[in-house]
Amino acid sequence: MVGASRAKSAAIALGLSLSLALCLAGVGPRSAAAARSPGRRAPVVDGATGPGIVPTGLTALVADFDGDHRADVFWYAPGAAPDYLWLGLAGGGFRSSPVAVGGTYRPLLGDWNGDRAGDIFWYGPGADPDALWLGRRDARFTIRWASVIGTYQPFTGDFDGDHRRDIVWYAPGGAADSVWFGGAGGAFASKPVTVVSSFRPQVGDFGGDGRSDVLWYAPGDPDDVLWFGLASRRFSSRATAVDIGHTRALPLRPGTIAGRFNPYGFVAHAMGSVGRHTYTNSLEAFRRNYRRGFRVFETDVVRLADGTALLAHTGLEANYGLHKPFQRATWADLRGHKYLGRYTILRSQDLVGLLRRHPDAYAILDSKYAELQIYKRFLHQAPEQSLRERILPNVVDQAMLNALRTLYPLQNYVLALYRTQYHNRYDDPVVVDFARRNRAPAVAMWWRARNPALSLNANHFQNRRYRASLVRALKAAGAVAYVHSIDAPADARRFWHLRVGLFSNEPFPPLGTGTAPPQLLAPRFGRGVSAA
Question: Does the N-terminal peptide bond of residue 530 adopt cis geometry, omega within 30 degrees of 0?
């Protein structure tokens, strides 16, 4: 985002300091009659505390132009019309003097030289002339001529933290951009930067270090970016997320669940069953269930010791021919192995390849640990934004969402409740508040009805969390509700009728055709591991 290679077409050409008086020699109180011009009343207060008469068509520029710690008003009239300076007085009144700008500008306010007196940069878009007026303690201005040459959307801030205002000359799109850093005496130091898209920049000290930063906000789907100002007159940058107007992934839209439940309300849990086996997370499971009509696939993910992201559930190492935990294994230990000796095991790059070849498919990632490292690996292997928006990670809590958003401006995700529930965290009001504050697109919970007599943790071990009241509140907050994981067609029909999405081990339309559903074979998990 931040570049230093593109030169700005406009060089800073500052003229000699003229130290002009700007018609302010007689700054004493003036009578209203003496300050009138034909057809308009001058903004004269004559030291009184009441309001002055403000002519129409003027722009108020408010700053402490004489450095006396009182705000002043520069009334600017574009073109040849007269302008006025009101100097704030101790008693609350103003002392008025005429000034002459004599042109049409876009004025920028700031203390460019750090002398604590307000200054004005008169920017003339395009080829129009530009000028810098430096405020002085004697209520006069020093003029310096400048040359910008170009059409920009400039904005200001103290980006290097030296107490002098700086200017970003931003041209939306592919045009060259630069930053002018304010300096002593009113000189600027120009540095090129690169902004590669069209944004609505917002300035603030987002890092809390006393330096101005820039939030480059783009409405809709394009990534938003944060620039953090540095004392070295550079910027560090990272992607961020402003979810106003962002397009949700198709399965996470309430309208999709209401009108296109088949197929998007059905999620193939752990890629769905194959050969009656669940939790294979295998290529064969994906192929079988994609042919059946599934378009949303949930998969478990673990991280091996060499950084490989493997599609597998913890506690099933033996089914992969391993005799040690996944955390201690490497891909070399697994190369050539198959799940249960028959199903093709997959890595993150394999899943990314499947999504590329099936552009209507979506993947929900249930990373069992090392969530940031796993998601970062997927991002590296899927650089296309259109593909990244179809990779939907499970999020456990606010801290995890914040952390994932340091890697990518994540908008499409699923808040998975089973892990916080295990720790007796995130009861229903907290979940609903999370959904509202974060505009969470989807929330997944255990499918059996919650027993109010038991703790969240005890309900977890009975696969219980669903409450109609929770689902209603989530829908009111704009979130799609999912339950997991369904084996029986009758249960699938019930949640379909309720328009609650479901993670399915097997059921998929048509449901209830009269044929007996297959007897699924669940794996045996290692000690201390609960299936989810």
Answer: no
Give the 3-state DSSP-derived string for 76-112, with helices as H, strands as E and coil as C. Answer: ECCECCCEEEEEECCCCCEEEEEECCCECCEEEEECC
Cα end-to-end distance, the chain, whole Å: 40
Reported as a single tens digit per residue, the pLDDT across 19-63 is 333 333 223 222 222 222 323 333 333 333 334 566 677 899 999
Q: What's the predicted TM-score (pTM) here? A: 0.69
In single-letter form, the type of residue at position 178 comes to S
pLDDT of 47: 31
pLDDT classification of 222: cutoffs 50, 70, 90: low
Q: Which two tokens stand for residue 514?
A: 């009269």
**8 A C-beta contact, residue 433 and residue 397:** no
Nearest to 261 by CA among 1, 7, 514, 507: 507
DSSP 518: P
272 near 505, Cβ under 8 Å? yes
Extract the tokens encoding 150: 């170009």
User: CA-to-CA distance for 139 and 342, rounded, in angstroms?
Assistant: 86
User: Tokens at residue 411, please?
Assistant: 């908008």
What one-character DSSP code corresponds to residue 74?
E
- Cα dist. 42→95, 98, 255 in Å? 12, 9, 59
C-alpha dihedral sign at 271, 272, 273, 274: negative
| Residues 269/503, Cβ–Cβ less than 8 Å | yes
pLDDT at 223 exceeding the cut of 90: no
Q: How far apart are CA 491 and CA 29, in angstroms?
A: 85
Phi/psi for 135 (5° steps) reads: -65, 150
Q: Which helix (H) or strand (E) holds 181?
A: strand 177-182
Q: Which residue has the tokens 């505390």?
A: 49
3-state SS class at 166: strand
As a whole number of angstroms, the distance between CA 112 and CA 114 comes to 6
Backbone angles phi, psi at 193, to 5 degrees: -135, 165
**Dihedral sign from CA coordinates of 95, 100, 101, 102:** positive
How far CA 172 is from CA of 242, 324, 441, in Å, comes to 19, 55, 31
Instruction: Output the CA torsion 179→183→186→190 (10° steps).
Output: -30
What pLDDT is stored for residue 245 in this prediction? 64
As a three-state string, the secondary structure of 353-417 is: HHHHHCCCCEEEEEECCCHHHHHHHHHHHCCCHHHHCCEEEEECCHHHHHHHCCCCCCCCCEEEC
Residue type at 226 in one-letter notation: L
Alpha carbon 411 to its chain's center? 8
